[in-house]
């Protein structure tokens, strides 16, 4: 597959480079249409979206961020992921909180997000998250023909079509989850 958003990166089929994937991501890709997923090695110090885009020439508008959310209702807790375009912020306290049916929602503590996902902070991706976690995908992400997302590690990025993320077994497409920044 050809990726117009790759900038200066060389993208290869993801399953050809399992060394560039977190273990849960590699396992999950085996059950997907992996021919539609590419991976590119990057400098781990440039994994944050803005720095990645600026350095490699990949448009910021083609980036998607995955944030882990912890929702609470009384003593019950619920983990979930929100996937929004890099040019937006996840509406955690509004749309996500209501969609999850919790009284309070916030970004999950880093150690918990990393420990429970099996992925590195700054590389968490919706592909390969624990089965019990809903993956809330903003409708703009689902419509995107090409996206750059984390690979589960900071040393690479995945290239995927938005409809593949929307079709994940735990995914739910949510209108208005991403709020434009600025």
TrEMBL record:
Provide an example Pfam family for this protein.
tRNA_edit
Which residues are in coiled coils?
none
Stretches assigned to the YbaK/aminoacyl-tRNA synthetase-associated domain: 44-165
Which is an annotated GO molecular function term of this record?
aminoacyl-tRNA deacylase activity
Gene3D superfamilies on file: YbaK/aminoacyl-tRNA synthetase-associated domain
- The name this protein carries in UniProt is YbaK/aminoacyl-tRNA synthetase-associated domain-containing protein
Question: What species does this protein belong to?
Answer: Actinokineospora bangkokensis
């Amino acid at each position: 597959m050809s990726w117009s958003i790759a900038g200066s990166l060389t993208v290869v089929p993801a399953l050809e480079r399992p060394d560039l994937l977190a273990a849960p991501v590699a396992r999950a890709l085996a059950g997907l249409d992996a021919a539609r997923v590419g991976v590119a090695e990057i400098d781990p110090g440039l994994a944050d979206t803005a720095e990645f885009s600026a350095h490699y020439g990949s448009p910021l508008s083609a980036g998607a961020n995955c944030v882990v959310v912890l929702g609470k209702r009384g003593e019950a807790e619920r983990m979930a992921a929100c996937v929004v375009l890099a040019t937006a912020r996840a509406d955690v306290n509004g749309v996500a909180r209501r969609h999850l049916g919790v009284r309070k929602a916030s970004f999950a503590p880093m150690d918990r997000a990393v420990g429970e996902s099996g992925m590195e902070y700054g590389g968490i991706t919706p592909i390969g998250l624990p089965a019990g976690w809903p993956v809330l995908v903003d409708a703009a992400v689902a419509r995107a023909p090409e996206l750059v997302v984390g690979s589960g590690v900071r040393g690479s990025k995945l290239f995927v079509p938005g409809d593949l993320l929307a079709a994940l077994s735990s995914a739910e497409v949510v209108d208005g989850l991403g709020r434009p920044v600025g």
